[in-house]
Design goal:
Blueprint (H helix, E strand, L loop, with lengths): L2 H9 L10 H5 L53 E13 L7 E6 L7 E5 L3 E8 L8 E3 L20 E7 L6 E6 L6 H6 L4 E6 L10 E9 L12 H6 L5 E4 L6 E4 L3 E7 L6 E4 L5 E6 L2 E9 L1 E4 L4 E6 L4 E8 L15 E8 L22 E12 L6 E6 L11 E3 L4 E9 L4 E5 L4 E8 L2 E4 L8 E4 L4 E7 L4 E7 L2 H5 L3 E6 L1
Parallel strand pairs: 1-4, 3-8, 9-12, 11-19, 20-23, 22-30
Antiparallel strand pairs: 1-2, 4-6, 5-7, 7-8, 9-10, 12-17, 13-16, 13-18, 14-15, 14-17, 18-19, 20-21, 23-28, 24-27, 24-29, 25-26, 25-28, 29-30
């Protein structure tokens, strides 16, 4: 049975494994954060596929682009950022006249922007007012393992903890933070928990440019304006909401006067963003881990879930659109055709020209790897015993909190081969460090990386592989996983122990 036929049969069967565990749905899933078996985490809740949703025009469009809420520091000490971040549910009026219960950091959607400089010490008091255990994971940031919000370090419902770390020199970049309890991460993110973090360099060659911050997320709202649980398609493909938002707004208007620097986050659970400004070129100056060596001019840029980018925008006066063009990531089962989505209107109020240094940054020479590792993402579909089932695996295994999958040595540069041995796209993400992509291979053709960049999240197409250079600078346990959150939550995650 081929993949499409298998999935169509599975979706029509009441015995499909993802939809069959009503006992699990009734359990107290706050204990799920401690799940430690080698079997995939079962979905806690399952919504029917035919829930009535709000139409796209239910959310107003065309308002001025909203700035992010900047988290103020409570510290009077130089080079110390101290603040409190609280995760809690509250009622928000997303749709005029209707209330939606969202989960948010400091009652802000998206969560507050934290800004600090290289060399600063960050002290975040985290308060968990959810009914579930949760963590704060500092996505992409080079922080110690015991401060990185691993699933093993969940903060219980009603609890709190202090996250404390110092940002090393060379760590300037565009990051974010979100929950990472095992199994409950998908729900906590699709209900609103995500915040932003910028680490700045004091000698930033683009520091003089005015900035715009664009956090792209999506949201699903039922006809009563509530946020419904995941359905079967979500657990297979990853959740996508009918509303695609920018800083929590639908199709805002962004005004560009003089040349601007844009920082862009893909904070979606599973949606891929093939970004384009039709009729204009995009000047890419940065990636997940900061500036590129040289600016790159492209027509479009694909951001997988969890990826970030920095652009410089300039050009003639006039109005254009920021688009997310259709991207086929080989979803499974019954899915609608991909469509272009308008994210925002951009109004250039004057002619401008981007004047950039020839070299933005000097990356150190590539080091010769002293060890090699191989990571394989796979999907397993089965009809054993007449019951349809599906698993998302790393190196043939489902995530186990008690198992160490790989071992690395502190400071060693390693060559990792990441393989997507499956039918759909999967973005690879690793905690605690950045890596450099050397090349990718697809259908026997190897293609060098188009430019040097530091990454922590990188997409792999079906049956594509990538070679990356990676060095861990902190001891401890690190996660690596698919950043489609529903796949991560069902077992597509492994652990590397750095000694």
């Amino acid at each position: 049975m081929n993949r499409r036929h298998f999935l169509q049969a599975a979706l029509g069967s009441a015995g499909f494994a993802l939809a069959s565990n009503s006992l699990w749905a009734a359990m107290d899933h706050s204990a799920h954060a401690g799940h430690a078996s080698g079997t995939p985490a079962m979905p806690q809740k399952m919504a029917p596929d035919n829930i009535s949703l709000l139409p796209l025009d239910a959310l107003p469009a065309g308002k001025p682009h909203a700035a992010l809420f900047l988290l103020p520091t409570l510290s009077t000490k130089p080079s110390v950022l101290a603040a409190t971040v609280t995760a809690e549910p509250f009622e928000a009026e997303l749709v005029p006249g209707k209330k939606t219960v969202v989960w948010a950091y400091n009652r802000s959607i998206p969560g507050p922007l934290i800004e600090a400089f290289e060399g600063d010490t960050v002290e975040i008091r985290f308060i968990n007012k959810l009914a579930q255990a949760t963590t704060l994971h500092w996505h992409g940031m080079p922080v110690p393992a015991d401060q990185d919000g691993n699933p093993q370090d969940a903060v219980p419902a009603g609890g709190e903890r202090l996250y404390r770390f110092t940002l090393p020199i060379g760590s300037a970049g565009t990051y974010w933070y979100h929950p990472h309890p095992h199994g409950d991460t998908p729900e906590q993110v699709y209900r609103g928990l995500a915040g932003l973090f910028i680490v700045r360099a004091k000698n930033d060659v683009l520091g003089h440019l005015p900035e715009q911050h664009l956090v792209i997320s999506d949201l699903r709202l039922a006809s009563d304006a509530s946020i419904p649980d995941n359905n079967m398609n979500d657990w297979m493909n990853g959740r996508e909401g009918q509303f695609v938002l920018l800083n929590g707004q639908r199709e805002p208007v962004i005004t560009v006067g003089e040349t601007q620097r844009w920082r862009i986050w893909n904070a979606c659970s599973a949606r891929y963003l093939r970004l384009s400004i039709p009729g204009r070129k995009i000047i890419v100056v940065g990636s997940d881990g900061g500036l590129l060596e040289r600016a790159q001019v492209v027509d479009e840029l694909l951001l997988a879930p969890g990826e970030r980018a920095e652009w410089v925008l300039a050009g003639p006066a006039g109005g254009v659109s920021l688009m997310a063009l259709a991207y086929d990531r080989s979803k499974m089962g019954r899915v609608a055709p991909e469509q272009d989505i308008k994210l925002a209107s951009i109004q250039f109020t004057q002619d401008s020209v981007a004047k950039l240094p020839e070299r933005l940054r000097t990356l150190p020479p590539k080091l010769k790897p002293v060890a090699k590792k191989r990571v394989v993402f796979s999907e397993v579909m089965s009809m054993e015993g007449g019951q349809h089932s599906m698993q998302f695996l790393v190196n043939g295994k489902s995530y186990d909190m008690q198992r160490v999958d790989l071992h690395s040595r502190l400071g060693d540069t390693e060559l990792w081969e990441i393989v997507n041995d499956s039918h759909m796209d999967h973005p690879f993400h690793i905690h605690g460090t950045q890596f450099e992509v050397l090349d990718t291979t697809l259908k026997g053709k190897t293609t060098p990386a188009p430019w040097r960049a530091y990454k922590d999240t990188f997409n792999l197409k079906p049956y594509q592989s990538a070679r990356i250079l990676i060095t861990q600078q902190h001891r401890g346990l690190r996660m690596f996983h698919c950043h489609i959150l529903e796949h991560e939550g069902q077992g597509m995650m492994g652990q590397v122990l750095v000694k």
